[in-house]
Specification:
The complex is a heterodimer of chains A (about 160) and B (about 290).
Chain A (H helix, E strand, L loop, with lengths): L1 H23 L13 H12 L6 H15 L5 H15 L1 H5 L3 H26 L9 H26 L1
Helix pairs in contact in A: 1-2, 1-3, 1-7, 2-4, 2-7, 3-4, 4-6, 6-7
Chain B lengths: L1 H37 L4 H31 L3 H39 L4 E12 L9 E4 L12 E3 L4 E8 L4 E5 L6 E6 L5 E6 L6 E3 L13 E4 L11 E9 L8 E6 L8 E10 L8
Antiparallel strand pairs in B: 1-2, 1-12, 2-5, 3-4, 3-12, 4-5, 6-7, 6-9, 7-8, 8-11, 9-10, 10-11
Classes of the chains: A mainly alpha (about 160), B alpha+beta (about 290).
């Protein structure tokens, strides 16, 4: 069992690290409101595909690291990612058989939920952000999902063989 | 699909644990959020994780830094010559201005001594680069490549060659995050250089505009006035240029005039900033060397 799972970890961790790097990568000013939530997308995929290995605990750790990397309130992304991972794991059997378009819509809903939690934490903490800026990442995230799923599918296939 | 089947078998056992785990981690997050928002017990944790994150920042910054380096080494000779002569001219100008500065400083010291004003502030300035790393999506901010190791502290003021840029809000060991004066949550005590009228400049979320919301309708402010830091509030040393008033609208029935100003520093195109250390000499009028 452990032998079966051990080699699988590295590629997934690499995906998460890459997502973290993309989350802090420089972008031109006009494009940064549309930066997809790379970390959330990556976590949704792996929580859905390998729910026993990557679920809420992973989400929390990655969230805390993301909070430090972006300098947001410690725990803000962590709590949002926990809820998203919970839904992804809870319904992973349904999600896996969804066709791409339906999955994109699901991802849209998950990301909207994710942004809502961030929005809520910002509101409670008194961080002043115009509400429109929360929608950009949701839309681009849902649009980029099919491509991302393809890439991760390749990673998963190679990691197993 | 092997994983699907094994997951299926374990599903009934796993599902209740999942809810419990969510409760646990969400609770932990809320606890951390509250502590981080109110107190600073978690600074050590913050720093420790920040050290782990730093390599990621360096890797992300590397391509841009490399590109700049290539640009510099491959620069046209003609271009370099032009830049060189421009810099020479600039240096001559600044030197000419500085000649009077030391005389003025001496005069200022004498006058202060006459007034028996005790607090004198010396300032030390060091240059820091800006890492090409975008940070907090909810703020106007930037990441600088100096941190606690270089003596950077939370709340430290940053300026560039033109004027005030912002202040440090989160200090890591090797890098620090700073908020720009254009952030909507940032307010800066300023005074109008012409007449010493004090007010507050608030960020708007746009790089080229600050608002001065607390000036009454009859305040003596006009287009083109230079705003400098007033030194009140303590975060910023006095006398640095902040912005130039570019629009004053007085509506008779409103209590306050709508005044906006353009920041002196070009906030969205800076590559280097200067960090300011204020050293107060409380009781000795002469700086101890």
């Amino acid at each position: 069992m452990t032998q079966d799972r051990a080699p699988r970890r590295l590629p997934v961790v690499a995906c998460l690290v890459a997502a973290l790097m993309l989350a802090i990568a420089p972008m031109p000013d006009w494009a940064s409101p549309f930066r997809p939530d790379w970390v959330a997308l990556t976590l949704i995929y792996w929580a859905m595909m390998l729910p026993r290995t990557y679920s809420i605990g992973t989400a929390w750790i990655v969230g805390i690291v993301l909070d430090v990397a972006q300098g947001t309130l410690l725990g803000q992304h962590a709590i949002a990612l926990c809820f998203v991972a919970y839904i992804a794991v809870k319904f992973h059997l349904q999600f896996r058989v969804f066709p791409v378009s339906q999955m994109s819509a699901t991802v849209f809903a998950l990301l909207a939920f994710y942004q809502f939690i961030l929005f809520w934490v910002n509101g409670v903490a008194g961080v002043n952000v115009p509400a429109v800026t929360y929608w950009g990442p949701v839309i681009t995230g849902a649009m980029i999902w099919p491509l991302l799923a393809l890439v991760f599918g390749g990673v998963r296939y190679r990691a197993r063989s | 699909m092997l994983t699907a089947r094994t997951d299926n078998q374990h599903r009934s056992q796993r599902t209740p644990a999942l809810g419990l785990r969510l409760l646990l981690f969400a609770g932990l997050s809320i606890l951390i959020l509250v502590i981080d928002h109110r107190e600073n017990y978690l600074d050590a944790v913050h720093r420790a994780i920040d050290v782990a994150v730093h390599p990621l920042r360096v890797v992300v910054d590397a391509p841009v830094a490399m590109w700049r380096l290539i640009g510099e080494t491959g620069a046209d000779r003609n271009e370099l010559r032009l830049e060189n002569s421009r810099l020479r001219a600039e240096r001559l100008l600044t030197h000419a201005r500085l000649q009077r500065y030391s005389a003025l400083e001496a005069e200022n010291a004498r006058l202060r001594a006459m007034l028996e004003a005790r607090t004198r502030v010396r300032e030390e300035v060091r240059v820091a680069g800006i890492m090409s790393v975008s940070a907090n999506p909810f703020r106007h901010d930037l990441v600088i490549d100096k941190g606690q190791n270089d003596g950077v502290y939370d709340g430290q003021a940053m300026v560039d060659a033109e004027g005030v840029v912002g202040q440090v809000i989160e200090t890591g060991l090797f890098s620090a995050q700073a908020v720009l004066i254009s952030d909507p949550d940032h307010a800066l005590p300023v005074e109008i250089n012409r007449n010493g009228l004090r007010t507050i400049a608030v960020g708007t979320g746009e790089f080229d505009r600050l608002d001065l919301p607390f000036l009454p309708n009859n305040a003596d402010v006009s287009q083109g006035d230079l705003l400098v830091t007033s030194g009140l509030g303590g975060a910023f040393p006095a006398g640095y240029p902040v912005a130039i008033v570019d629009n004053v609208t007085r509506v008779p029935q409103e209590p306050f005039a709508a005044v906006s100003a353009r920041p002196a520093a070009k906030l969205n195109q800076i590559r280097e900033i200067m960090l300011i250390w204020s050293i107060a000499d409380e009781d000795d009028p002469e700086p101890p060397e």
